[in-house]
Write a structure and sequence with these properties.
mainly alpha; globular
Length: 427
Amino acid sequence: MPSELQFCILFLFLLRFIIYEWLRRKNDAHVLQLSFKLPKEIVGIMTEREWGDCVEYNLAKSRFSRREEITQFFIVIGMLLFLVPWFFSQFSEGATTSPWMATMLVSLFLIMLQLPDLLFDWFRQFELEEKFGFNQSSKKLWIADKIKGFFLGGIFLFLTLSCLEWTYFYLESGFPNTWWVFAFAIFWGIQLTMMILWPKFVIPLFNKLTPLEDGELKERLWNLADRTKFKAQAIEVIDGSKRSNHSNAYFTGFGKFRRIVLFDTLIQQMNIDQVEAVLAHEIGHYRLGHIPKRLFVSCLLGLAGFGLLSHLSESIWFYQSLNIPLEHMGKLSPLILLFVLFLGAFTFFLVPVSNYFSRKHEYDADRFASISLGGGESLCSALRQLYRENKSFPCPHPWFSFFHHSHPSLIERQRSVNAIDYSKTGG
C-alpha cells in the first residue's frame, strides 16, 4: 500500500501530466484552427507552403511530446513504487552501504535511468527531425555522441557526488547544522568551473570550432562588440550543420575566456545585417546583467535545496515513507537520487514563473539590440528568418506559451520592437 508521501508525489505528477496535456490539446486546436488560411499577421513572414510545413511540424512535435510524457509518467510510477525501493533494498548491508560505494551505485543508477530516453532521442532525430529536413546526423555519429556523452556525464556525476559525499561525511559530525552550506559552496564552485571549462575542453570533443573568416561579417561583429562594450577573446564558428539544420548563436565563458560562437547554419541562412542583429540581442543579455541575475536566482534556489537536503537527511519518516531502508540514512548520495527523481513533482508550478522572467529578459535584449543598431528592422528580419528556417510556430495559444515558452512569440516580439520610441533612447 503506497504511503501518504508516495500518494502525494503520484498525485502531483498526475496533476502535472493533466495540466500539460490540457495545454497541449488547447494549443493543438489553436494551431489547427489557424492552419486553414494564412493569418493576416503571418502574411509577408511565411508563404502558404512554409505555413503548412510549420503547422505540420509543430503538430508532429506535439504528438511526439505526448507519447514521451505518457511513457515518462508510467516510468515515474514504476520507480516510485517498485524500482527505487528495490534498488536500495539490494544494497542495505555490509560494504555496499559505505558512502563511496553508495556514490558509485547512485551514479550508475542515474546513468541507467537515461537509457529509456535514448529511444525517444533516436526517433526524434531520425524520424521527426529527418522527416522535416532538419536532421543532418548519421546514425554512426549519433551513437558516437551518446557514448561520449554517457562516459563524460558518468565521470562528472561521480566526481560531483563524491565531492558532496566527502563534504557530508567529514563535516556533518563537526558542523551538524551548517555542513550543507559548505556542500553547496563546493557544488556551486564545480558548476561555475564547468561553465569555464566546458567550451574549451568538452565542446571540441563533439564539434569543431574554427575562427570566423576575415571579411565584412567579422568586421561588423567586432565593431558591434566594441560599440556595445562587450569584450570577447574570439569569434568562432561551430559546425552545427553536421547534426542539424537548426541555427543559433551564443557566447560562453567569463572575462578573458569569453567567446562569441555562431552556428555555421546561422551564417548560411542569414545575411550580415541579420547575423549582426542576432549577436546584438545576445550581447544585450550580457550588458543588461541577465546572466548574473539568473545565476543569482539559481544560487538561492540551490542553497534552499541543500537546506532541505539537510533537513530530510535526519528525517526517519521520509525514508520510511519511500520504503528506503534506514541503513541509508547518513549518506548523501541516496538522498540526492530521490531529489533528482521526484523533486519535479513539487516544482513544476515554478516553470511559468521562470518563463515569465525569461520572456521579460528577451524583450529587454530585443530593445537593447534595436537601440544599438539604430532601429529594429534588422532584428525583426532576423527573427522572421529564424522562425522560417526552424519552422517555429509564430503565434501559439497564449496559455500554452505562458506555461511553456521561455521566449515571447514572433508576433509579440515584433510588436514590442516596433513600439520603441527611439527619440527617447538616443537611438
